[in-house]
Design brief:
With 191 residues, the chain is an alpha+beta fold. It has one domain. Helix content is 35%, strand content 15%. A four-stranded antiparallel beta sheet has the order 1-2-4-3, with helices on both faces. The radius of gyration is 16 Å and the shape is globular. The C terminus is likely disordered. Bound molecules: iron/sulfur cluster (SF4). Iron/sulfur cluster (SF4) binds next to loops.
Length: 191
């Protein structure tokens, strides 16, 4: 891994993530199977948010969109639960991950003209999404999850040589950022 990219990963960990790594762009395969899981509404967000299916758009559009980017970074927040019913840790870890994710989004946006963040979980910028009655209140800030775009997150991690599971009683939230680095000197950008 290039020194500059290592520095970018270190930058991510400075924002509080427990792990980060370069995303293998070839792992960005948008799968109908993931869409079917969204359709089954296990997370109760299907057809309830502008950044979830069906409003977020087709798998084909997602595939076209990621072609604009030449670099990806995965970030993760891992916590150790007392047991599988440790809802406090689950809740607190999700909040910590989302907060750190949004802070890094703002930081990267201040340095890169075009980034595509994909979070863990549905867009929760507003307490209640305006979907479907009104347009999205913050179209430039709204963020879809990796799953909502149709990505199988554990596969993306596996193909990027980044663990998805860190052992018994661990919990990990995974998100990613796509950037277009062109010939930008990353070190100049992040220091
Ligand atoms: S920014 Fe608000 S209105 Fe837009 S998708 Fe997110 S929650 Fe919904």
């Amino acid at each position: 891994m290039k020194k500059e990219i290592k520095t970018l990963m270190k930058h991510a960990e400075d924002f509080g993530f427990t792990h980060s790594g370069e995303l293998n762009l070839d792992s960005l395969v948008f799968m109908p199977e993931v869409r079917q899981m969204c359709n089954s509404d296990l997370c109760k967000s299907y057809n309830k948010n502008w950044m979830c299916p069906p409003a977020i758009g087709t798998l084909e559009n997602a595939a076209l969109r990621v072609k604009n980017y030449n670099f990806g970074m995965i970030v993760q927040t891992t916590a150790l639960m007392e047991d599988e019913f440790d809802y406090d840790t689950i809740h607190n870890t999700e909040i910590k991950h989302k907060n750190n994710f949004m802070k890094l989004v703002d930081n990267l946006k201040s340095k890169y003209s075009d980034i595509l963040p994909m979070s863990a979980g549905t867009c929760s910028i507003c307490n209640e999404c305006s979907y479907p009655d009104e347009p999205c209140r913050f179209p430039n800030k709204a963020i879809g999850s990796m799953e909502s775009y149709g990505l199988w997150v554990s596969k993306v991690c596996e193909l990027s040589n980044i663990p998805y599971y860190y052992g018994k009683n661990t919990l990990t939230f995974t998100s990613c950022y796509l950037l277009n680095l062109h010939n930008i000197d990353i070190l100049d950008k992040i220091t």
